[in-house]
Amino acid sequence: LACSLRLAGDYRAARRLDQENFDRCRTVLPPDHPSTILAGWSLASDMRALGDFRDSVELLREIWQKARLVMGDDLPVTLLAATSLAVSLRRAGEQSEGMNLALDTYERYERHYGSSSPETQLCAINLACDFAATDNMPRALALVTEVRSTLEASLGADHPHTLAATNNLACYLRCEGRVKEALRLTEDTLRRMRGKLGEMHPYTLAAGVNLANCFGDSGEFAAAEGLERETISRLEQVLGPDHPDTLICRANLVVSLRSVGQDREAKELKAKILSDFSQVLGTGHPDAVQLREGQR
């Protein structure tokens, strides 16, 4: 149930249920029991979804090591924990460690379970994010294009996993300067997500952030500003005002405001976001660096 709540975008309800389940497992089962390990993995996934990246990393390190000792490096539970830890590391700003772990995990998935297994495909989506985060955009594009094609064939174009891969593909296209392609693809993806997941699902809101970036890079600054304001309002309702995704969208709004000549508001907003970033993620986090440099 908690996993379904998380997939439906209700991260807070998922965390409450997972915390209760994890506490009970630790009360009645050994800490290295497979059920305890899975309960910890699920709770750590909720933590990351709610923006608690450091706590998620700490718990996943513990869970992953226990899984390795009890079940070995290559069984599904261990690989699941490793994949999740790699994502949390990247989101916490530990990009190099996250990518190394994601690459090792992806190779293990391919070797033992094949390149077309659902778990391998999801690991590949995350690995592509690591490539993008470490400025290897061509490799990120190639991998996510392949994954999207596989997911579209096996799950359909409107499956949430396919849509997530498509949104990532559009993001990488934009970063490579292929803004027109990215804009068309993101508009279609956002439309599909709204129909499949609803206006307020975090995946839908992520696509809205991406589309606003495409508007900004296309010179449609007023459209970017309008969509960013709308998306910020929804992110605040769904994830909270201090969630890293909300802060990132606000940082993008700073760029849009400067582009339309609203320098005073942009300056005030940037100072507030930098303060929030330092408290939530730390001043050295890559997203904070991008904000200081005025990048989307």
Tags for this model:
296 residues, mainly alpha, 15 helices, 0% strand, globular
Walk me through what this model shows.
- By secondary structure, the chain is an all-alpha fold.
- The protein is 81% helix and 0% strand.
- The chain has helices at residues 2-7, 11-28, 34-49, 53-71, 76-91, 95-113, 118-133, 137-155, 160-175, 179-197, 202-217, 221-238, 244-259, 263-280, 286-292.
- α5 (76-91) runs antiparallel to α6, α8 runs antiparallel to α9 (160-175) and α14 runs antiparallel to α15 (286-292).
- The chain is globular, with a radius of gyration of 19 Å.
- The two termini are 36 Å apart.
- The mean pLDDT is 95.
In a nutshell, what does this entry contain?
This protein is an all-alpha fold.
